[in-house]
Specification:
The protein has one helix and no strands. The chain is mainly α and 33 residues long. Keywords: Membrane, Transmembrane, Transmembrane helix.
Length: 33
């Protein structure tokens, strides 16, 4: 993978989306208990 952001998704945005997904997963898991 080349470190280029020509795929339409900027790197900071991708990192933010991944972080949001992890936070949402932890939040949903905490709601189950």
């Amino acid at each position: 993978m080349k470190p280029h952001t020509n795929d339409g998704i900027p790197t900071p945005l991708a990192i933010a989306l991944i972080a949001a997904g992890i936070i949402l997963t932890v939040f949903i898991q905490s709601l189950k208990f």
